[in-house]
Fold each of these.
Amino acid sequence: MAAAKRRKTSRRQTPRNDAQVFLDSIAGVAASMAESRKHRVSMKLRDAATAAYSFGQTLDDLPNLRSYVEEASSAIDDLGQYIEGAEIRQMFTEARAYARQRPFLTLGAGVAAGIAASRLLAATPPGTGQRKARNGSRHA
């Protein structure tokens, strides 16, 4: 009788365990995809940091702005170095901990990223992402 109760209890917990296994496998796939692109992202960030620093060097007339640009370029370069050296799972763990510690800041950053992405998408040249039908009319 006790064994039957244990089986029923374990069956009730199985969907949650299955969901966790499924989510873990998705996270693993995402991590492996991110790992393969990590070096490229790191190099792009470090190139952006170099460009920002070079721009800051031209701001002799605006020393306060120059200081901010140099600090920003240093932070971008640090991020590039962090991405290059850290494991993807470690970054996910740290991002999750940061989001739990500062949920409103994380929410604000997500909203800002969404707005920036929508602006970038809205700024794409006309005709990009649209195709012409055979009769010449345009469809989205």
Note: The beta strands are 131-132, 138-139.
Amino acid sequence: MILDSISSVYPEIRIPVKAEAETQEHYRVSPFARKIAFTSYSLGSSIDVYTINIDGTSRVALTNLPSREILGDWSPDGTKLTIVSDAAGNGDIYTINADGSGLTRLTFSPLGEAQADWSSDGASIAFERYQDRNGTSDIYTIATDGTGVTTQITTGSKSEVQPGWQRVCPPLPVCG
């Protein structure tokens, strides 16, 4: 549960829940540690993405669709997030502004995608794309505005999952 996970790292944060049956998961702290984004599941309700200030105030629903939306990651500048939504029938990658506006679909796969992660320069998003109905997946990248070519990074008969970018720094003190 997000309350327990966040509280272990940030003991001063208490995220108010709407109902006893609500569960929050998949949380990500914004790049400048001002907000927390998370996925909220409520029984008998949709799955949506929310933000809340780091002090536990101003909970805002970024999505409020009848479909399921699951948090991916913050953009490096903290102005956008990636989410995975099944609004079009399966999981596709979307971006959304941090205030909940500007929901933009980036991928159009017949089998779906998951686990979207921004590159440290903010130019690309890496994600899993399912290759078959058995859940086998490979890693792909796409430009953050959805233009250009979706590039397949891995291939094989086994699933490659949970892509993540590693920040590469020149010698200190440039990266700090």
Note: Helices lie at 2-9.
Amino acid sequence: MKIRMRFFIIFLIILSNKMVFAQSSKTGNWLIYFGNQPINKKWNVWNEVQYRNYNFVGDLQQFLIRTGVGYNLSENNNNVLMGYAYVYSENYFEKSDAKLSSEEHRIYQQFLTRQNFTPFAIQHRYRIEERFLQGDFHIRFRYALSIQVPLNHSTLTKIPYIFLQAMKYLSKTVPLYLTETGFTWVLDM
């Protein structure tokens, strides 16, 4: 138990050290919905909507809709999923108030694996994306390490909990680097 707790504390220290550099804007806002609906014990449907802003609300950076169908290789542990994402972005030109809008379509495949430790869980996500941009095509590999920690109970069978995540991207134009890290509060509605 002491080794697990030490690992957890080291993970949080490393993650919090990188969070300072995760976003350049101090007022940006990401509104995100994640949904995972089981069809039966083996199959599930994943849904995700993200509304990202440069400021608190109203200065659109990106709107993303992602969905997919998954298959559980083992109960509550390993899942493979294939899906589609639509991404609309509005990026500022450098040193300007003018924006350039773009649309992107993505087909993706991913593998999720989860390890449960008391009182937290660690999840690894490996994703391959085929990105169809306006007049261009890219393949991108993504890895996400996340940890879930319950807030008011000893296991993750109930919410609320804190969800911490760090991601890495690898593509032909982007070197391997830490790109996103964040806190998510998950509350029962």
Note: Residues 17-23, 174-189 have pLDDT under 50 and may be disordered.
Amino acid sequence: MLIRAFRLLVWLAPLPLMVWAASDPRFRDAEGLIDTSFCLWVTLALLSQAAALQLIDAGRRDRCRSRDLRPFCVCGNIVLKNESKAAAARLRQAFFPSGAKDDRPDAELLLDLLTRHRDRPRPLEPHTVETRTLQFLVEERRHLVDEKTRQKNRLTAQLKLYFPQVLAWFDDLDAPLVGALLKRWPTLEMLQRARPATVLRFWEQHHSRSRRRNQQRLEAIRRARPATQDGAVISGASAAVGTLLGLIGVLRQGIGELDRKIRQLVAAHEGSVLFNQLPGAGPALAPRLLAAFGTRRERFQTAAQWQAYSGVAPVVVRSGQRTRTRFC
């Protein structure tokens, strides 16, 4: 709700600012005319405040993105500054102990905060085009991987209803072999009616050539007993399994395409040498580290500053004789 309220405030911000400028001497120059440049600065500062609500530090997500900032990031003559949302919230709590919340008082608090401390917020400096492209790709890849995991869990739940033996025969349910097997023989009864030579040839065509393991699977198929004889459960679950296999296949293909683009982008990126040499940074983690640190690494002069930005820095809190340490 808070983000939605600030988004609404963003698009309505210019009108009240111009109204305030007509009556507030702070918005007038030496000749008594309205200082429109300062009004524009305050308006853009409010846009920055709304965008800050969506900024997630690099320790928690792969990149920081705000749709409200995109039209302004391409303007070379506009400097955006980021203001902490916690500062505005604590000001509201201090001046409105009742917990009242309204857009106009929030805008007035932000205006007061920005006019008194114009030099404190840091300017928002976008990364290079290559780095921002990599940030998009690694985050979308993460979303696809999470979605594939969700669909895999749904597939597991459906198989447990009527065909749980597949979970023991294969280690990875989202492997192409499992999908092809379930599409050709969607039930245990159909698989048991197939000739062993046909099943063996099918496995070999899908790169499962371990003779010992294939024989063990054939013996397990021969001895298997159906989990249920209910035709409704078998028909419904097998239909759902077919749909889920299609979704998993599309997601697998999409992840592979993103992996290809990420590899090409990382190979040509100037910072890839540093992150590829880190211990434990493989083809999936190294691009995410590169996207998290970005190309504006001069913002952090020490490791402690990066820890504070990513939310893993220990912070000492003292009150009287009590002392505790928490992570910011």
Note: The first strand starts at residue 81 and ends at 82.
